[in-house]
């Protein structure tokens, strides 16, 4: 399903955006047919509600979309564009002049609302196509939507078809599409090349653990993206209960989001050098599975006491972070579906992030507003460092007590980045639990659009 705007010269139906408190004034400026139709249907211009107004010959003359009140707009995003799934088939254009950011939100939301996951069951495509508003960057919006939909497809695909093998294939396809250079380390080669934690977590699976590595770009600042690629998480020997295991196909959401963001960066040809690292594993169970109380030695040389095999994501990320930190890098960003504690703290809609770099933090917060991609800054709280120090080893992968779980996980990861001065970690959910405007139930990207907006300030593009 192509996510694209209609050609500019296509005949189209106008869309009017009307504030709830401005409806009466708007009606007085319309023709008699429109006035009668709006009044007959008691249209109130509530946020996201729409009315199709017919012409004298019975065709659609225009669409009116309610813009609600200022208070209602604060409580929703993409509400206007979500109407696209309910409109009659045809081509539409935005008649109302919106501010640049609002027009961009409308256009992006329209494309994101067209997403369908149809790999296993036929899904009817939306018949309503939009002509890009004149004051938006149509090419950039289409690329962003394509990256987001790549992320959604990867997350929505079950582990039976999106294990480490398939994730590698998707990774290689992305590299080929953008003329990037991939490098794969798998199986026992992980041990030979000193990536022991990735091997340990994934060795019990039928599909070998591996590190996916991609480089793109020849000049500019160096950006390294690292995504947690746990294609399914049983919890290991600390096996999850059924209720907790049901959504674990999404435990590679960090990898999927990083790949979507990488697509945006490369398709937009940003002037930087990009490296993408994804430890791709399945946390499975057999006689070779790692055990509680095992003490593991990481690539960096730090030892880790395993107090819960279900805290595996930070282990595979640790080796990838250490590898990334071994070369000069202007910014390292890790993204992972890492902790349930983050969901308890901020719910499914916000993407928590951590950084000690104030320039990056400011840029991400501002980028999130522009991109309509909400985030929330969390602290690398130094006094909690002692919580991840078990005494018998350098680090504890699952501190007892249950407090500050997202923070202690972030502190654990920070131990493996000692050279790069600009490190950002996202603890994302990657799942839309119920349908929302432009976000159907299922896999969803979080933080990628905010980062794309923030990158020029984060790495001095």
TrEMBL record:
Pfam families: Peptidase_M17, Peptidase_M17_N_1. Residues 308-315 form the Cytosol aminopeptidase domain. Keywords: Aminopeptidase, Hydrolase, Manganese, Protease. PROSITE patterns: CYTOSOL_AP (PS00631). GO terms for molecular function: aminopeptidase activity. Belongs to the peptidase M17 family. This is Leucyl aminopeptidase family protein. The lineage of its organism: Bacteria, Pseudomonadati, Pseudomonadota, Alphaproteobacteria, Rhodobacterales.
